[in-house]
Design goal:
two-stranded parallel sheet; alpha/beta; about 350 residues; Rossmann fold; five-stranded parallel beta sheet; 14 helices; 2 domains
């Protein structure tokens, strides 16, 4: 919630409440293959919730491999230019997560053609070589590549390195279709099961609200059903405006969770956890006003607290008063009007 990046390890120290949401989502992941749709007002704590689900999944199961998909980065990627891109993006992100989270290797090393031959034992070298090779071949499918003499274009050709990049002679190769990527993901699952005893993949899809509505519709309507026959589960997080109450959630999602604001009794704990170096007080009357004005939105509450620290840091006693809250309300209305 602060401007800096919050790591997974810091989440549990900073998290306030959300135990019912985490437990219900975790139960769905551990006991079913149902896709999960989580939505709520921007700043309500959905990303915190998603990272808590990630942490709890790792704690509760050794057989599930959860990984993050930042959907906004998909829509901005320069070499991905059609609605079927999600399939390739998904496969690349699975490899990246295995590489960085499971084997604790730097991402930059994944895209290199070779690795340090002195690193680790032979078993790990083989795993790393496999991941590097398949990552490079899949990434090549999204760029200009040249087919083999037999014209053998397809997922097996890519996996086997049969499609090579050529600067002098190349042609445009379209994105792999989702049903082709299924073969690729199944091979990755086989790799995870054999090498790491991981049975199920869980894709935690964040930042959906930053994608255009067209991208979201294409993704939800054309892709997730296609993956229903393989052992992968999707947790999809989307932000909505406070006024936007009617949202169209596809039937692909069997478990739907609405994330609401924090209850009033958790506000002081939220501020203290995020700013332990300061003592920030608030009267019961202003606490009521703060909760009502922000709808319990953690980002809004912390924004007001940070404004108090920034402007009143010279005071011996920091206190959130009505003027701070009203200033925030005024600024929010101004922002809403400008971007409506």
């Amino acid at each position: 919630m602060n401007a800096r990046y919050i790591t997974n390890k810091e989440i549990e120290k900073l998290r306030v409440d959300r135990i019912p949401e985490v437990n219900s989502s975790l139960g769905t992941i551990l006991k079913t293959n149902n896709n999960i749709f989580i939505y709520g007002e921007r700043g309500i704590g959905k990303t915190f919730l998603l990272k808590s689900i990630y942490n709890e999944t790792l704690t509760e199961s050794d057989n599930i491999f959860p990984f993050f998909l930042n959907l906004f980065s998909l829509s901005r990627n320069s070499f991905i230019n059609n609605e079927y891109a999600f399939s390739s993006f998904l496969a690349l992100e699975i490899i990246t997560s295995i590489w960085t989270e499971l084997y604790n290797r730097p991402h930059s090393e994944l895209i290199e053609k070779s690795i340090n031959p002195d690193f680790g034992d032979n078993s790990l070298k083989r795993k790393i070589n496999y991941l590097q090779k398949t990552y490079a071949n899949l990434a090549a499918s999204a760029r200009k590549i040249q087919s083999t003499e037999e014209g053998n274009i397809g997922v097996k050709a890519i996996l086997n390195g049969g499609l090579k990049i050529s600067e002098s002679e190349s042609r445009e190769f379209s994105q792999l279709m989702p049903f082709e990527i299924i073969s690729y993901i199944e091979e990755l699952q086989e790799f995870l099961l054999k090498k790491e005893k991981k049975i199920k993949l869980v894709a935690l899809c964040d930042e959906a609200n930053l994608m255009s509505k067209e991208w979201q519709r294409a993704l939800l309507s054309k892709h997730l059903d296609i993956f229903s026959n393989i052992n992968i589960q999707f947790v999809f997080v989307a932000g909505i405006s406070y006024e936007q109450m009617d949202i169209n959630i596809p039937n692909t999602f069997e478990f739907i969770l609405s994330v609401d604001g924090l209850q009033k009794e958790y506000i002081n704990e939220l501020i203290t956890k995020h700013h332990p170096e300061y003592e920030i007080s608030i009267s019961n009357e202003n606490l009521e006003h703060l909760h009502k004005s922000t709808n319990g939105n953690p980002r809004s509450i912390l924004s007001i607290a940070e404004n108090v620290i920034r402007n009143d840091f010279k005071n011996n006693k920091l206190e959130i008063n009505k003027s701070h809250i009203n200033f925030f309300i005024k600024q929010r209305k101004k922002w809403t009007k400008n971007f409506a």
